[in-house]
Design brief:
The structure holds three protein chains of three kinds. Chain A is α+β, with helices and mostly antiparallel strands. Helices cover 11% and strands 26% of the residues of chain A. Chain A has one domain (4-160). Chain A contains four helices and seven strands; from the N terminus they run αααβαββββββ. By secondary structure, chain C is mostly beta strands. Chain C has one domain (16-95): 2Fe-2S iron-sulphur cluster binding domain, sarcosine oxidase, alpha subunit, N-terminal domain (Ubiquitin-like (UB roll)). The chains are: A alpha+beta, B alpha/beta, C mainly beta. The structure holds flavin-adenine dinucleotide. Flavin-adenine dinucleotide binds next to α1, β5, α3, α4 and α7 of chain B.
Chain lengths: 166, 367, 101
C-alpha cells in the first residue's frame, strides 16, 4: 500500500513535526525547515547556503542535512530549491500570538506589501488571512513572500492563494 | 554536393549541445542538425528550476540552459548549427541525408556521427483520443511556454509522472485551471516535491483512476474518468464526468531511435527506457563503429544525465579522431562516475536496470 | 487566447501580421508556428482525417506526429505546429490528403 505522501504529495503530521528544531532554538529567531522526504538526484540546496550549514552530500541522492542550530534563517535557500520545499519560520516576529513565515511564490500578479492574502495549507485549503510583510523578488523569477500569520498555524500554512490574473 | 564535417550531431537538445561543446572545444569541425525553430530540445519550454546536479545547472530554469551550454563555443568557426533541418536517412556508405527548411535535401558524410534525437510522447487508447483538444503534455508546454498561447481554459492531466505534475503546475502559472491529475498506478510516479506543489494549489491527484473517453463533437468538451481495480479494469459505477476543454497526455515518452535502425546498430527493446534503444559501450559508442548515442534517445531519463552523456560522447568522439584532449582519461572517468552517482538512488533503479540491458563491453576501455 | 502577465516568462513576439484561414482575415505574430496563431483565435480543428473524416488538431507540437497537416499557400501536408507564420499566408483546413492548388 502506498503511503500518504506517495499517493497525495501531502506529508503526514509526524513527518511535518520532525522538521522543527528544539524549543530553545525556536525561541531564538528565524530558522529553515526542509520538507524533502524523497531521495532524488538533486543538490542545489547545498550550494545555496552561504554559511555551509547544509552538509555536502556524499551521494547526490541523499536527503539534505541542515544544521538547524546554526542556521541563521537568512532564507537564501528558499528560492534556490527546485522543489520549493524550504520555508523559514520566525516565531520571535510580531506579537505574542504571531509569527512570520517566508514561502516561495511563483504566480502573477504578485501581492504587495501590507496586502492581506489568503494563506493555504499543504492541501490548498484556506487556513487564515495573512499580512504580507515583504515581497522579496529574486532574479530567478521565484519570489519569496514574508507573511505575518497566527503563531498556531506555523506548521500548517505553506502557500498563498494565487491572485486572479488580470 | 556532400558535406564532410568531422562530426555530425543530429539533435540540438541538451545532449547534442553538450556533445558539440566538447567536439568544437577539441577543435573538430562540427555540424549540428535540429528540426526545431531554435536549439535546446525539451529545454526551451521548461520554466521550472531544474532538478539534478548543481554541476549540470540544477536550480537554473530549463529555458536558460541551452544558452549556457552554447556560450563557450557559439563564436567558434568550427561550429555550424542548422535549424529546421530534419535528418531523414542514413545510407550504407555512411551518408546522412537531411531536409533543410522543407526545401532542400542536404547530404553529409561525417567521420563520426552522434545521434541525440531525444524522444516523443506516447499516447494511450480511449474513444476520441484523436479529437482536437487531446494533446501531448509537452505540446501544451510548447504552446504556452514558448509561444504564450493558452491551450484552453480548463485541462485534465493524464499521468502523475514528473511531466504530468510539472505541466499541471505550469498551466496554473499561466492562469489555466487543472481539473485533476489522473494516474493509473496506486502512487505518484514523479517526485513528491512536484506533487506537493500542485497539492498546495488544490489540484486533486487521483491515483488508481483512468480516462474512459473524451467527450465532444469537433473538439473536447469534457471527459469521463473512472476508478480502476488491481487488474487496471474500470470499476463499474465509479465513472464520472469531468468538465474540461482540453486533455493532456503525460503517459511517457519513447526514444526517437529510427536513425540507429537505419544505420543497422544493434537494438534492444528496453521497457524501462520506453522502447527500442541501441546497445552502447561506456563511451556511448554503438555497435556500429563511429556512431554514438546520447540523451533520451538512448533511454528516457533527465537533462542532467543527457548533458553528461553528451559530453562523454563528445570527448570520446574527439579523442577517437586523434584530437589532443588534455587529461582525457581523467575527464572520461569523471563523467562516467557522475552518471553512476546520479543514477545511484532509489529513483534511479529502473535506469540502472535499463542500462544493464543495453551495455556492450567497451571496445576501447579507458583506464 | 494569449497568456499575459506570466510570473516567469516574457514572451518575445515577432511583428503582427495578417493571414487568412478558410477565407477569414486573422492576425498572428510573424515567425510563430501557424498552429499557435490559430489557437490564439480558438481554432483547434486543423484538418479532417483521410479514412474516417474525423477532426484533427495538433498533438506533439514538435513536427513528429503528422496530426496537424494543413494546406498553406496551396501546398498540402504542411506541419503547422512548426511552420513559421508569414504575412499574407493562405491557410486552409486539409480534407483527406489535400489538394494541390
Ligand atoms: C515537462 C518536462 C519536465 C522535465 N524536467 C526535468 C528536470 O527537472 N530535470 C531534468 O534533468 N530533466 C527534466 N526533463 C527531461 C529533459 O528535458 C530531457 O531528458 C532532456 O531534454 C533530454 O535531452 P536530449 O538532448 O536527449 O533530447 P531533447 O531535449 O528531446 O532534444 C532532441 C532534439 O533533437 C531534435 N530532433 C529529433 N529528431 C530529429 C531529426 N531526425 N533531425 C533533426 N533533429 C531532430 C528534436 O527536435 C530536439 O530538438 C523534463 C522533461 C519534460 C518533458
Amino acid at each position: 500500500m502506498a503511503s500518504q505522501i506517495e499517493r497525495t504529495g501531502v506529508p503526514t503530521k509526524e513527518q511535518i513535526e520532525s522538521t522543527l528544531p528544539g524549543d530553545e532554538r525556536r525561541a531564538k529567531g528565524p530558522y529553515a525547515v526542509i520538507e524533502c522526504w524523497q531521495e532524488i538526484p538533486c543538490d542545489p540546496c547545498v550550494a545555496s547556503c552561504p554559511f555551509g550549514y547544509i552538509a555536502p552530500m556524499k551521494n547526490i541522492n541523499d536527503l539534505p542535512k541542515l544544521d538547524q542550530e546554526s542556521c541563521t534563517g537568512c532564507g537564501n535557500c528558499i528560492a534556490l530549491c527546485p522543489g520549493l520545499a524550504i520555508f523559514i519560520i520566525d516565531e520571535t516576529f510580531g506579537g505574542e500570538d504571531e509569527a512570520m513565515i517566508r514561502i516561495p511564490h511563483e504566480f502573477a500578479p504578485l501581492p504587495e506589501k501590507e496586502d492581506i492574502v489568503r494563506a493555504l495549507d499543504r492541501e490548498g485549503n484556506y487556513v487564515a488571512d495573512a499580512e504580507v510583510v515583504r515581497v522579496q523578488k529574486g532574479k530567478s523569477g521565484c519570489t519569496v513572500l514574508h507573511l505575518l500569520i497566527p503563531k498556531k498555524f506555523i506548521l500548517d500554512i505553506r502557500a498563498v492563494e494565487p491572485l486572479p490574473m488580470r | 554536393m556532400i558535406a564532410t564535417p568531422e562530426v555530425l550531431i543530429v539533435g540540438g537538445g541538451p545532449a547534442g549541445l553538450a556533445a558539440a561543446r566538447e567536439t568544437v572545444g577539441a577543435g573538430c569541425d562540427t555540424v549540428v542538425l535540429d528540426d526545431a525553430l531554435e536549439p535546446g530540445g525539451q529545454l526551451v519550454k521548461q520554466t521550472h528550476k531544474f532538478f539534478g546536479s548543481e554541476m549540470e545547472y540544477a536550480g537554473v530554469r530549463g529555458i536558460k540552459i541551452p544558452e549556457i551550454l552554447l556560450r563557450e563555443v557559439s563564436d567558434s568557426p568550427k561550429l555550424k548549427i542548422l535549424l529546421r533541418t530534419t535528418a531523414s536517412g542514413y545510407y550504407e556508405d555512411g551518408v546522412v541525408t537531411a531536409i533543410f527548411q522543407d526545401k532542400k535535401v542536404l547530404k553529409f558524410k561525417p567521420k563520426k556521427l552522434i545521434i541525440a534525437t531525444g524522444a516523443q510522447e506516447k499516447t494511450i487508447l480511449f474513444p476520441n483520443n484523436d479529437m482536437p483538444g487531446v494533446y501531448g503534455a509537452g505540446a501544451v508546454q510548447t504552446l504556452m511556454n514558448v509561444y504564450g498561447v493558452a491551450p484552453g481554459t480548463r485541462g485534465l492531466m493524464i499521468g502523475a509522472g514528473n511531466i504530468g505534475l510539472i505541466v499541471s503546475y505550469q498551466l496554473r502559472q499561466a492562469g489555466i485551471a487543472v481539473a485533476a491529475v489522473v494516474e493509473a498506478l496506486d502512487r505518484i510516479g514523479g517526485y513528491w516535491v512536484h506533487a506537493s506543489k500542485i497539492a498546495r494549489l488544490k489540484i486533486p491527484i487521483l491515483t488508481r483512476h483512468t480516462i474512459i473517453e473524451a467527450l465532444g463533437e469537433e473538439n473536447v468538451t469534457g471527459a469521463i474518468i473512472a476508478q480502476i481495480d488491481d487488474n487496471w479494469l474500470p470499476i463499474p459505477g465509479t465513472e464520472r464526468e469531468i468538465e474540461c476543454d482540453f486533455i493532456c497526455l503525460a503517459v511517457g515518452l519513447s526514444p526517437l531511435s529510427d536513425l540507429f535502425r537505419l544505420a543497422e546498430c544493434e537494438m534492444v527493446f528496453v521497457p524501462e527506457f520506453g522502447g527500442d534503444v541501441p546497445l552502447r559501450d561506456t563511451n556511448m559508442e554503438t555497435s556500429t563503429k563511429g556512431i554514438y548515442v546520447a540523451g533520451d534517445v538512448g533511454g528516457i531519463e533527465e537533462a542532467s544525465s543527457a548533458i553528461i552523456e553528451g559530453a562523454l560522447a563528445g570527448i570520446s568522439t574527439a579523442f577517437s579522431l586523434g584530437k589532443n584532449i588534455p587529461d582525457y582519461e581523467r575527464r572520461n572517468r569523471e563523467l562516467r562516475d557522475e552518471l553512476v552517482s546520479l543514477r545511484s538512488g532509489p529513483v534511479g533503479e529502473h535506469i540502472r536496470s535499463g542500462i544493464a540491458k543495453c551495455r556492450i563491453s567497451a571496445k576501447t576501455e579507458v583506464g | 487566447m494569449r497568456i499575459e502577465n506570466h510570473p516567469i516568462l516574457e514572451f518575445k513576439h515577432g511583428k503582427k501580421v495578417g493571414f487568412t484561414f478558410e477565407g477569414e482575415e486573422l492576425s498572428g505574430y510573424e515567425g510563430e508556428p501557424i498552429a499557435a496563431a490559430l489557437h490564439d483565435h480558438g481554432v483547434q480543428v486543423l484538418r479532417y482525417s483521410i479514412r474516417h473524416n474525423r477532426p484533427r488538431g495538433f498533438f506533439c507540437a514538435i513536427g513528429h506526429c503528422s496530426s496537424c497537416l494543413m494546406e498553406v499557400d496551396g501546398i498540402p501536408n504542411v506541419r503547422v505546429c512548426t511552420e513559421p507564420l508569414a504575412a499574407g499566408m493562405v491557410v486552409r483546413r486539409q480534407r483527406g490528403k489535400g489538394e494541390l492548388r
